[in-house]
Design brief:
A hairpin with a 2-residue loop joins strand 9 (215-220) and strand 10. The protein starts with a strand and ends with a strand. It is of the alpha/beta class and 228 residues long. It is built from seven helices and ten strands. Helix 3 crosses helix 4, helix 3 (105-115) runs parallel beside helix 5 and helix 5 (149-160) packs parallel to helix 6 (179-196). The protein binds adenosine-5'-diphosphate (ADP) and magnesium ion.
Length: 228
């Protein structure tokens, strides 16, 4: 596959603690994610999936190694530049939706677009289109508390991709959903990748859903390795 490299991790190291509490988590992670590709990150609890996603998403700095987004090395950049790149190129979805409770589904998806400077009408139009795409257009005016878990996660995904990022990072996005609902959420992410060229890295414990992705990787001894 020769699609453009959306995200490149090279020699990533990350530890927690110091001295007696020194705990190495990532010990030289190399990983390439290409546009339009979906990759499942399947590894036991505590192996560093969240740490890896946070470093990849420019939410944390690695202790060593380089994160390149769309070919641009990000380590040496100022916090402002990193934040700008994160907002433009990276969408993040968490296990719990983190939607703003006071706002409707539509408004939650408009928010990142307004922050990016889009006019309100355009942001609303794209938010509505994304809700339709996720097959929850009829829930546009509902607040998060009025949505089911699966609907909340689909809104969270729509919000994550509202600014058409290059990369979607999802940290056990279906961890608290029933299997059928989890299936819909995975389908939505896969369809987005296929149709918009989004690159997706999705941490999950669900092997069945992982098998729907293009590739599967795990974390072994602090490194990312391909699963067959
Ligand atoms: P996963 O997402 O695969 O469950 P994490 O990346 O959350 O794993 O955590 C990897 C390891 O790092 C775990 O052992 C966890 O306890 C430890 N850890 C995570 N965050 C911190 C922190 N802020 N301080 C100390 N240890 C941490
Ligand atoms: Mg985790």
């Amino acid at each position: 596959m020769n699609a453009r490299v959306a995200l490149q991790l090279s020699g990533i190291e990350r530890h927690y603690g110091e001295g007696d509490t020194y705990l190495p988590i990532l010990k030289g992670v190399d990983f390439t994610l290409r546009s339009g590709e979906t990759v499942a990150l399947v590894a036991p609890s505590g192996t560093g999936k969240s740490t890896l996603l946070h470093v990849a998403g420019l939410l944390e700095h690695p202790d060593a190694g380089e994160v390149a987004v769309n070919g641009l090395a990000c380590n040496g950049l100022s916090d402002d530049r990193r934040t700008a790149i994160r907002r433009k190129e990276i969408g993040f979805v968490y296990q719990f939706h983190h939607l703003l409770p006071e706002f409707s589904a539509l408004e939650n998806i408009m928010m990142p677009q307004l922050i990016a400077g889009l006019p309100k009408a355009e942001a609303a139009e794209r938010a509505a289109a994304l809700l339709d795409y996720m097959r929850i257009g009829h829930r546009a005016s509902h607040r998060p508390a009025e949505l089911s878990g699966g609907e909340q996660q689909r809104v969270a995904i729509a919000r994550a991709v509202a600014n058409a990022p290059l990369v979607l990072l999802a940290d056990e996005p279906t961890g608290n959903l029933d299997p059928e609902t989890a299936g819909y959420v995975f389908e939505a992410m896969e369809a987005l990748a296929r149709q918009s060229g989004l690159a997706a890295l999705i941490a999950t414990h669900n092997h069945e859903l992982a098998s729907l992705m293009d590739r599967r990787v795990t974390i072994e001894d602090g490194k990312v390795v391909e699963l067959k």
